[in-house]
């Protein structure tokens, strides 16, 4: 066990997913657990840039090893939109439902449904900045399916499956998901 590491997030789903993968290596703590309630502005125009902003913010103020992730849904027929703007695709209220509806509207009549989730993790360990990436390829469905997960999960079907991300249980999603793969890359580095 390497001790505690801060995952720079307030998203309960993500914390659960990632803690399960890093169990036995790190005790993963959230922003809330270190008493940080600041809203960290993600002003970069790339996933790498935003992950770095978030990790650096915590490392500079708290001096604790930490990591942050940033994810985008990249839709081929939309020139990789919404990408880095996935959370606020339909506006600043960051509504998952509105985001999905807007994406489905923008893909009306479009037969190329290819898309991928891409996650970038920036970890800062003893002051050293490290980057890891994870990708999952799939298709955008024509309507939402399933009740699990969050964000765009009900309209994303990973390649090789007949289920949306919202129909997979957490363990199965972790095995193949963008974030799961990025965290696995981070784990492999830690085990080197
Ligand atoms: P974040 O950088 O992880 O906050 O992700 C940005 C946005 O991408 C989120 O607000 C969600 O809309 C979407 N997103 C990220 N990860 C997932 C996922 O695992 N499933 C579905 N949507 C996701």
Question: Could you characterize what this model shows?
Answer:
- 31% of the residues lie in helices and 25% in strands.
- With 192 residues, it is α/β, with parallel strands linked by helices.
- The chain has one domain: Maf protein (Alpha-Beta Complex), CATH 3.90.950.
- Strands 1, 2, 3, 4, 5, 6 and 7 form a seven-stranded mixed sheet that branches.
- Inosinic acid (IMP) binds next to strand 3 and helix 3.
The gist of it:
The chain is of the alpha/beta class. The protein has five helices and seven strands; from the N terminus they run E-H-E-H-E-E-H-E-E-E-H-H. It has one domain: Maf protein, CATH 3.90.950.10.
The CATH topology assignment is Maf protein
Helix content: 25-40%
- The mean pLDDT is 95
Structural class designation: alpha/beta
SSE topology sketch:
Elements lengths: L3 E4 L4 H11 L4 E3 L17 H16 L3 E10 L5 E3 L12 H11 L7 E12 L2 E13 L15 E3 L11 H7 L1 H14 L1
Helix pairs in contact: 1-5, 4-5
Bound molecules: inosinic acid.
List keywords for this structure.
192 residues, alpha/beta, Maf protein, seven-stranded mixed β-sheet, 5 helices, 7 strands, 25% strand, globular, binds inosinic acid
């Amino acid at each position: 066990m390497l001790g505690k590491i801060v995952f720079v997030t307030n998203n309960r789903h993500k914390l659960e997913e990632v803690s399960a993968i890093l169990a036995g290596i790190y005790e993963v703590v959230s922003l809330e657990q270190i008493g940080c309630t600041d809203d960290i502005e993600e002003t970069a125009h790339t996933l790498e840039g935003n992950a770095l902003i978030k990790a650096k913010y915590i490392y500079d103020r708290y001096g604790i090893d930490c990591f942050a992730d940033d994810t985008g849904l990249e839709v081929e027929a939309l020139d990789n939109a919404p990408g880095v703007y996935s959370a606020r695709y339909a506006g600043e209220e960051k509504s998952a439902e509105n985001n999905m509806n807007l994406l489905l509207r923008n893909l009306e009549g479009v037969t190329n449904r290819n898309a991928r989730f891409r996650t970038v993790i920036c970890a800062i360990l003893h002051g050293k900045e490290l980057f890891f990436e994870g990708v999952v390829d799939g298709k955008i469905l024509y309507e939402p399916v399933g009740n699990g997960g969050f964000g765009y999960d009900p309209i994303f079907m990973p390649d090789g499956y007949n289920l949306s991300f919202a129909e997979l249980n957490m363990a199965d999603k972790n095995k193949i998901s963008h974030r799961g793969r990025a965290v696995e890359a981070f784990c492999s580095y830690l085990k080197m």
